[in-house]
């Protein structure tokens, strides 16, 4: 069965402490992998789209990478305003979301 | 601001009732998607419309239906509501209907069924 698994479920970092979030997937024909940021009670905010293994995208303190089995969202020197839930979604015939990683960055 | 608008922001109703949620896509987007997000289920795809036609169906209950109008706005109708239908409902839009198109999400409608 097609699955999208994100780890860890929750991550607490000190401001400036870099780390990575993982999204592993099993789908038959990947059409795109998406990263979103979601604040409580708000709609997911688009971050990145990746289409093929080896692709990388960067935006401010965030960098997304993609392999054939997983994607990483690297956060460099995070700030408290980076605190949010980060969602990974994979599209083959359907769009499937992972459960998310809840990131807390302490000052 | 993604450019996708949803109304109302909040909706409180009783079991057995029927409600309609409304979505206006970003300017130029032809595809509209509906999602349900509950605490125990995460974000679940319900249905997609492209330029007025149903394009894809996900985990949408028979009690739920949707349509997309000529001006491209969409409505999600939820009927015979149950307590378990309480959730956040999001609309998203994309330029076309291609697999792999980036979807931009609206702010959501919080539905509470009492």
Describe the protein in words.
The complex is a heterodimer of chains A (107) and B (114). Chain A is built from no helices and 11 strands. Chain A has 107 residues and is mainly β. Chain B is an all-beta fold and 114 residues long. In chain B, strand 4 and strand 5 form a beta hairpin. Chains A and B meet through strand 4, strand 5, strand 9 and strand 10 of A and strand 5 and strand 10 of B.
Structural class of chain A: mainly beta
Q: What is the terminal separation of chain A in angstroms?
A: 41 Å
> What is the beta-strand fraction of chain A?
over 45%
Percent in strands of chain B: over 45%
Principal-axis shape of chain A: globular
| Average pLDDT score of chain A | 94
Number of helices of chain B: 0
Largest interface by Cβ-Cβ < 8 Å = A-B, 24 and 22 residues
Order of helices and strands of chain B: EEEEEEEEEEE
Oligomer: heterodimer
Biggest sheet of chain A, in brief? 6 strands, mixed
Global Rg of chain A: 13 Å
Number of helices of chain A: 0
Low-confidence stretches of chain B: none
């Amino acid at each position: 069965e097609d699955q999208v698994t994100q780890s860890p479920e929750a991550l607490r970092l000190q401001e400036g402490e870099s780390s990575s979030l993982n999204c592993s997937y099993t789908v038959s024909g990947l059409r795109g992998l998406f990263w979103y940021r979601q604040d409580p009670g708000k709609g997911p905010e688009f971050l990145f789209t990746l289409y093929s293994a080896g692709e990388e995208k960067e935006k401010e303190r965030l960098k997304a990478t993609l392999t054939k089995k997983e994607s990483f969202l690297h956060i460099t020197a995070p700030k408290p305003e980076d605190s949010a839930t980060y969602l990974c979604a994979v599209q083959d015939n359907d769009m499937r979301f992972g459960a998310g990683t809840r990131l807390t960055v302490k000052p | 601001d993604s450019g996708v608008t949803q109304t109302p922001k909040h909706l409180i109703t009783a079991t057995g009732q029927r409600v309609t949620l409304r979505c206006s896509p970003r300017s130029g987007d032809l595809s509209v998607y509906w999602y349900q997000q509950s605490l125990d289920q995460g974000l679940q795809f319900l249905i997609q419309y492209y330029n007025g036609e149903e394009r894809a169906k996900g985990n949408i209950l028979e009690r739920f239906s949707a349509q997309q109008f000529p001006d491209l706005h969409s409505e999600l109708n939820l009927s015979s509501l149950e307590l378990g239908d309480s959730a956040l409902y999001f609309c998203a839009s994309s330029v076309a209907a291609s697999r792999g198109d980036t979807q931009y999400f609206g702010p959501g409608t919080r539905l509470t069924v009492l």
